[in-house]
Amino acid sequence: MYNLPYTNKQINIPYLLKIGNGKICKIGKYLKDKNLPGVALFLGDGTEELVGAELRRGFGDNGINVVHSQVVSDISIESITQTAFQLPPATDVVVGIGGGIVTDITGFVASTYMRGLRFGFVATTLLAQVDASVGGKNGVNYEGYKNMVGTFNQPDFVLCDLSMLQTLPDREFRAGLAEIIKAGRIADRGLFELFENHPIDAFRNDQSLLNEAITRAIRVKADVVERDERESGERRKLNLGHTFAHAIEKCGNEFLHGEAVAIGTVMIARLSAHLGTATQDEADRVRRVFERMGLPIRTEIDFKRLVKALKHDKKKEA
Ligand code: GLY
Q1: Strands 13-20 and 6-8
Q2: What pTM did the predictor assign?
Q3: Residue environment code for 47-58, b if the CB has 16+ CB neighbours within 10 A, otherwise e
Q4: Which of 1, 84, 227, 286 is the most core-located residue (most Cβ within 10 A)?
Q5: Ligand 1: distance of its center to the CA of 293 in Å?
Q6: pLDDT value of residue 199
Q7: For the CA atoms of the chain, what is the radius of gyration?
């Protein structure tokens, strides 16, 4: 079991990041220690069934009251405002439990409602654990544009409980791996090589291997964010492959985000080889690794359509 305490020095908030099995039961004790007895829960679809019993046991043992609980899955600005208005005055902290949509809604509502409430995340999908729950951006899409409304604000804590991934569908699991591979490609060659040296089944079945991959990916992101929280420079490299990925997503719903990231990262590697900023061998390695993990590496979307969508994308850096 890994613990990765991470302190965001720039904004001077002690930020607790815990990774491992059975972490969900720690929230009650954590909230008690922080003197945050009134908790509002924002839940993803199915998370009550996944963690409800254990979560409430941990709260009960530590004198934590659930003052509000609701499933949040819609992301329109209007429904977010309605959601915020339902939070009772006894709310000391908002805890979002789910995937990236839930963590973004939680972070956004908590950051803006009544000029800010405390908040934390329990990330239940691989994509949320390695990407959406880490970094402090809390964005909401508007009219098809990504993260048009949002905040930079760090949560008090993020818990990544690996036991929750056991029920994650294979396709979503693979899509989460795409962001880990991307992190390896950006700043951790050893992490990238884990995917060259192990088959997909190993990541699904070997908890310590998965734990290592998740921890290293989070470390890559957390380190970059710690140096450049507001994306004034270095942080942009975390967007590797995302310009194409967002354009692909804008052209249709065929791909999950992680799948679009896989295609986008392969496209960038090919382009880099073409421009001479990377070798053909590197581009081939990138393609092979995504292929090995059962991820798509190309799209049939018409190139002109893709370029049009790309021009509208806010994240211009690849
Ligand atoms: N919340 C995701 C990020 O900050 O990148």
Answers
A1: antiparallel
A2: 0.91
A3: bbebbeebbbeb
A4: 286
A5: 24
A6: 97
A7: 19
